[in-house]
Design goal:
Helix content is about 70%, strand content about 0%. The chain is mostly helical and about 500 residues long. It is globular, with a radius of gyration of 22 Å.
Length: about 500
């Protein structure tokens, strides 16, 4: 696909709101965009959510954590809705909003961080798929045996071949798997509600001494809640392929509402079936253990099968998102030109090959690495916090300046408050992530500088502006600190 402005930078491109999104590809309607949002958010995280939340928090803190996450992510959802309305000329918001706000290098890093987060998350998805199959077939172990890596590799390249046949076809398949994955979640909620016991959730409602203060408990839930909400920006990433611009915001809010209800129900109902201490010690996917306790062994089998369908759909959605995240910046001149090439079906094929090639490499690395699934998703989550922050800051900035607003537009103050609230929430998440994963993130951001330099030299453009040199220096210093700490064993996954 090419943007309707051809090879112009995204910040300069403009197009009619209802024009076709891509040469050689049918545009995506509201239903498919919504399915992409839900499909990318509901993956493996929800199936491990009961144990993940209970491991560091009591029921009260879990509830408070959801209220904070729900409010913060709602603000972020409104941010993406606002930006697609006020800045319809900008495609692939994760990249374009950061670039429009602070220039090429910041825009590149936003896209790079999002892309790295996407494919690292995909490695984690494949590991947990075959770890779950290990429940039925011991040869797959915890998802990192030779048989598991071979199975994951075959799965990866079958999915690769499906996507190469067309983005819309892959989006339709994702919509089907999205419906299929919601069914076991709804069944879990119904069965868990029937087995719910008030006295169980009342035990240590405010936590215990081992969990620390309520503030500490709430803080422990933050990266988990972000992980299960990642994908809220999915429709914005595919903005260039949307049939109608207004559908992007609608899909974002619809997807968010559905997922929030499902996630809160799963985590809170579980605490009414299994006491917090026991739930914290459960093996993942912990939803299986909870349903086993509620209805018997068939419940665990049901959830395991549901996880396989869910993660398969999420893997498809995130591979689409990752390829698109490389393609748009390449089309806009901040990534190498070869990443902007498409095949005859309108698929960014080169970006797809690079993405899945790295997934394959890291699958092989899992054979010798001690990195766990939980560590992979924590790292993927921390990588995406900076792109989210850039989007929130940009929404605040255009509301302050009145860009895209009529002089009498009374929505400007509302959008300013929403942007400011989303910015505060993103900063809180960076604080909650802690220094470990932020340092590891810097180590993964740093290699992107080489790709950025390659793109700039291809076009004979100036590499860095003065303020970008400052950003580069800070990034390299943090990466060097992370590398040194890793070498000494003081920092690790």
């Amino acid at each position: 696909m090419k943007n309707l402005a051809g090879s112009l930078p995204a910040s300069a491109s403009a197009k009619p709101a209802d024009s076709p999104a891509s040469v050689g590809a049918k545009p995506l309607r509201l239903g498919l965009l919504t399915a992409l949002v839900i499909g990318s958010m509901i993956g493996s995280g929800v199936f491990s959510l009961p144990q993940n939340m209970a491991s560091g928090a009591g029921a009260a803190a879990v509830l408070i954590g959801w209220l904070i996450a729900g409010a913060g992510m709602l603000m972020l959802a409104f941010v993406y809705q606002t930006l697609t309305t006020r800045k319809p000329e900008l495609d692939n918001g994760i990249y374009a909003y950061a670039r429009a706000s602070a220039g090429d290098f910041v825009g590149f890093n936003s896209a790079w961080g999002y892309w790295v987060s996407a494919w690292i998350g995909n490695v984690g998805y494949l590991v947990i798929v075959f770890g779950t199959l290990g429940y039925f077939f011991p040869v797959f172990g915890d998802g990192n045996t030779r048989a598991a890596v071979l199975g994951a590799s075959i799965t990866l390249w079958i999915m690769h071949a499906v996507i190469l046949r067309g983005v819309r076809g892959a989006a339709v398949l994702n919509a089907i798997t999205t419906v299929a994955k919601i069914i076991p979640l709804l069944l879990f909620i119904v069965l868990a509600a029937a087995a719910f016991k008030g006295h169980v959730i009342a035990q240590d409602f405010w936590g215990n001494v081992k969990l620390g203060s309520v503030f500490t408990q709430v803080k422990s839930t933050m990266l988990i809640t972000v992980w299960v909400f990642i994908g809220i920006e999915g429709a914005s990433v595919f903005s260039a392929r949307a049939q109608r611009r207004e559908d992007i915001g609608r899909a974002t809010l619809l997807g968010f509402a559905v997922v929030l209800v499902l996630l809160m129900a799963v985590s809170l109902l579980s605490l009414g079936i299994v006491p917090q201490g026991e739930l914290a010690a459960m093996k993942n996917p912990s939803m299986a253990g909870v349903l086993d306790r509620a209805v018997g062994a068939w419940g665990a089998v049901l959830i395991s099968l549901g996880l396989l369908v869910s993660v398969g759909g999420a893997l498809l959605a995130w591979t689409l998102l990752a390829a698109e995240t490389l393609f748009t910046p390449a089309d806009g001149g901040v990534m190498p030109k070869f990443l902007a090439r498409e095949n005859s079906h309108g698929v960014p094929a080169n970006a797809l090959w690079v993405t899945n090639g790295l997934v394959q490499l890291f699958l092989i690395i899992t054979l010798v690495s001690s990195a766990t699934y939980q560590a992979l998703i924590s790292l993927a989550t921390s990588m995406i916090l900076v792109p989210y922050l850039f989007s929130a800051v940009y929404a605040t900035r255009i509301a302050m300046r009145g860009e895209g607003y009529a002089p009498t537009d009374n929505m400007r103050l509302r959008d300013l408050l929403i942007g400011a609230a989303a910015t505060v929430y993103c900063c809180w998440l960076l604080y909650a992530a802690g220094p470990k994963y932020l340092l590891l993130s810097a180590l993964l951001y740093a290699p992107g500088v080489l790709l950025y330099g390659w793109a700039k030299r291809e076009r004979g453009a100036r590499l860095f502006k003065p303020f970008e040199v400052v950003i580069l220096a800070a990034l390299l210093v943090l990466a060097a600190v992370a590398a040194w700490l890793l070498s000494t064993g003081a920092l690790g996954l």
